Structures are given as structure tokens and as C-alpha cells.
């Protein structure tokens, strides 16, 4: 079979590589770091920077199709790659989700609900944003934020100076605080010929801005479940998307509010590895390779628990249980670092 090129060498790249290998593909990762989770399992590794245009060209020439496991890829790198081989998901999907302002504008253009938001570049625009949106609110960097990093919460307008200082001069958006009852996400896939398949929504609990657990089934009415799946399909179709997409949602009495989208396999979809016949990683490889999507129906109820930092020290005890263990091969368990996850089957899907 052909070789799948993956930009990024983290745990998502690792699990994509494993899934690709199971389908008979080889994988080649592009990752500046040496000892990365994906480098332990991929067949080939370009250990080069995203500013090395020659290396990017060689990488593109050596693979059949290119995908990515993180969204912060410089557009200059995309230019070099795109001229040589197809990239899935496409550039529009990547550019849209790289920037929280572009992303919110896109979602609003589809008629989907988001938190109220405004562009913030300086003290004056922050003051204006607070005047229209009010507090509590969250100031977020437009680019590069993840796991709640690059965010500052404003309880009152008095927090404006500190919040702006927290951005370190980076362009930001102010978001009104959404009074949600809980958070869910939809992991959705679209194939090259436009077929769409969505996994059952999962319910997500965060701790210190980092995903802690995902539980399926989520606490949703059947109408909310339908809404979630339809809006995910609307996003996929609007972007002419190929691959797996994660859509994070807030559940409120006024309906589902879209928090953000991720143009890749998603942490809140890890439960599919043990709750479905075809997991999100295989689904993504199938889509980008031009295969038909697989059966993503859920056969089990699952609780996925992330192992963050020292949580991984519990593995000897967890190994005595029936939980399915997934470790990323990271050496040092720094605080806040995602080391692995476990999937606990809690019942048969009804
Ligand atoms: P991820 O690791 O999911 O990419 P991130 O750094 O992009 O995270 P967000 O998803 O925007 O950050 O926010 C992290 C969490 O903070 C959300 O899951 C939610 O719990 C809370 N949060 C974010 N925005 C809002 C909001 N506007 N109102 C209320 N809570 C919010
Ligand atoms: Mg995010
Ligand atoms: Mg998020």
C-alpha cells in the first residue's frame, strides 16, 4: 500500500500510525522533535522543522497523501506540501480552525450558535468588547491555544488590565461566559465521496482546562442528539471536509452552542477505540485514503479517563482491572502532560 504522511508526532499521530498500519499502510511522520510518541511506531520520520521547505518537499514526494494531528501548521508549510500531494482535511478546514475569530465567524455564517464574541487587539477594543458582551467573560488568544492555555477569565471589568497582559500582545477574542449545564462533543467523519458518519456524542468533563473524562452515552435528549449530529454534518459539508472532525458543544436550555472545532481526531473520541468496531483513528485513515467509511456505531457504554501527569503511576493498579489501557510512550510525567488514557466498559449499548 501507499505511505500516509502525518504532520506532527504526538499521541494522536501515534494512534493514527497504529491504525494505518493495521490497514496495511506505512506511515511517515514529520516532526521536529526526536523522541516523540509517534516516532516510536511510524515507519519513517522526517525530523525537520516546518520552515525547512526542502525537507517538506521531500516528505511530500515520499508519501501518497498527507494529514495532520495538530492544527497549528504554518501556512508557508502548507503551500509547499499542497503543491505536491493532497492534504486532508483541506486547507480551508485548517485555516478556519487555526484562528478562533475565523472559526467563530464561520460557525455564525452557518447559522450555528456560539458564545457572543468580539475581536480584541488592545485596551480600547477590550473595553468596547466588555461593553457589549459584559462579564463574566473569557479572553482567549486567537491562535495556538490548547488545554485552556492562552486564556484569561474576567469576573468583572476590573480584570481587563490583567487579562490583556496575560495575552502578551497576541491578537485575542473576548467570549461571553456560557452558562452551560454540561459539555459534549461529536466526532464526525466525511469520506472523499461525501458520505458522513457521526459517532454517538460523548459527555466531557474538564479539570484545570484539560479534558479529564469522556462518557458515552452523554446526557442528551434524542432531539439534542439529532441536533448535534446534524450540525456536525453541516460543518463537514460546508468545509468539503475529508477525515475526522471534533466538534465541542455546550449544552444549555437555549440549545447547543458550538465552543470550537478541531480538524483532526480528538481526545474526546478515544472511547471509540473500545466502544466501536471502527475507531476514530481507523475512520480517519479510511477517509483520507479514499476508502468507504467504516461502521461507527457504538456497541458499548464507555468511560474514557485521561491519565495526566502522575495519574500514570496508577497503571499497575489499573492493569489489575478490565480497563483497556492506552499509553503514549512518553518518558517524563510532567504535570498537565497527557500520558495515556483508559477506556472502561460500563455496559452494552442499549
Ligand atoms: P482544547 O484542549 O479543547 O483545544 P482550548 O485551549 O482550545 O482547549 P477551549 O475549548 O476554548 O480551550 O476552552 C477550554 C474549556 O474552558 C472548555 O471546554 C470549557 O469548559 C471552558 N470554556 C471555554 N470557553 C468558554 C465559554 N465561552 N464559556 C464558558 N466556558 C468556557
Ligand atoms: Mg481548542
Ligand atoms: Mg476545547
UniProtKB/TrEMBL annotation:
InterPro entries membership: ATP-grasp, ATP-grasp_carboxylate-amine, ATP_grasp_subdomain_1, PreATP-grasp_dom_sf, PurK, PurK_C, PurT/PurK_preATP-grasp, Rudment_hybrid_motif
Origin: domain of life: Bacteria
Chain residues that bind ATP: 100, 140, 145-151, 175-178, 183, 206, 259-260
Keywords, alphabetical: ATP-binding, Ligase, Nucleotide-binding, Purine biosynthesis
GO biological process, one term: 'de novo' IMP biosynthetic process
UniProt xrefs under Pfam families: ATP-grasp (PF02222), PurK_C (PF17769), RS_preATP-grasp-like (PF22660)
ATP-grasp domain segment(s): 104-289
Function (record text): Catalyzes the ATP-dependent conversion of 5-aminoimidazole ribonucleotide (AIR) and HCO(3)- to N5-carboxyaminoimidazole ribonucleotide (N5-CAIR). Catalyzes the ATP-dependent conversion of 5-aminoimidazole ribonucleotide (AIR) and HCO(3)(-) to N5-carboxyaminoimidazole ribonucleotide (N5-CAIR).
Name recorded for this polypeptide: N5-carboxyaminoimidazole ribonucleotide synthase
Amino acid at each position: 500500500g501507499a505511505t500516509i504522511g502525518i504532520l506532527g508526532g504526538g499521541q494522536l499521530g501515534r494512534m493514527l500510525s497504529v491504525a494505518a498500519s493495521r490497514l496495511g499502510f506505512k506511515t511517515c511522520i514529520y516532526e521536529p522533535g526526536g523522541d516523540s510518541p509517534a516516532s516510536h511506531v511510524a515507519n519513517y520520520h522526517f525530523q525537520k522543522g516546518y520552515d525547512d521547505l526542502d525537507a517538506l518537499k521531500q516528505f511530500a514526494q515520499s508519501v501518497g497523501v498527507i494529514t495532520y494531528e495538530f492544527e497549528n501548521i504554518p501556512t508557508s508549510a502548507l503551500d509547499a506540501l499542497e503543491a505536491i500531494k493532497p492534504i486532508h482535511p483541506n486547507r480551508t478546514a485548517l485555516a478556519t480552525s487555526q484562528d478562533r475569530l475565523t472559526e467563530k465567524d464561520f460557525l455564525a455564517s452557518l447559522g450555528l450558535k456560539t458564545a457572543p464574541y468580539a475581536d480584541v487587539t488592545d485596551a480600547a477594543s477590550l473595553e468596547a468588547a466588555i461593553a457589549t458582551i459584559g462579564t463574566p467573560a473569557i479572553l482567549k488568544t486567537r491562535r495556538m491555544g490548547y488545554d485552556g492555555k492562552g486564556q484569561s477569565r474576567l469576573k468583572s471589568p476590573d480584570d481587563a488590565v490583567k487579562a490583556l497582559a496575560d495575552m502578551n500582545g497576541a491578537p485575542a477574542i473576548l467570549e461571553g461566559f456560557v452558562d452551560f449545564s454540561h459539555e459534549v462533543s461529536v466526532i464526525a467523519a466525511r469520506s472523499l465521496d461525501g458520505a458522513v458518519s457521526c459517532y454517538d456524542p460523548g459527555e466531557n468533563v474538564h479539570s484545570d482546562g484539560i479534558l479529564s473524562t469522556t462518557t458515552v452515552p452523554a446526557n442528551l435528549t434524542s432531539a439534542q442528539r439529532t441536533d448535534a449530529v446534524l450540525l456536525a454534518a453541516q460543518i463537514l459539508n460546508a468545509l468539503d471536509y475529508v477525515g475526522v472532525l471534533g466538534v465541542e458543544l455546550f449544552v444549555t436550555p437555549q440549545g447547543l452552542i458550538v465552543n470550537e472545532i478541531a480538524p483532526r481526531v480528538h481526545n474526546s473520541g478515544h472511547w471509540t477505540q473500545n466502544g466501536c468496531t471502527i475507531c476514530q483513528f481507523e475512520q480517519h485513515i479510511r477517509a483520507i485514503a479514499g476508502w468507504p467509511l467504516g461502521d461507527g456505531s457504538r456497541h458499548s457504554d464507555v468511560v474514557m479517563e485521561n491519565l495526566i501527569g502522575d495519574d500514570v503511576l496508577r497503571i499497575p493498579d489499573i492493569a489489575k482491572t478490565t480497563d483497556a489501557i492506552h499509553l503514549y510512550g512518553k518518558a517524563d510525567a510532567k504535570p498537565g502532560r497527557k500520558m495515556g488514557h483508559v477506556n472502561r466498559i460500563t455496559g452494552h449499548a442499549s
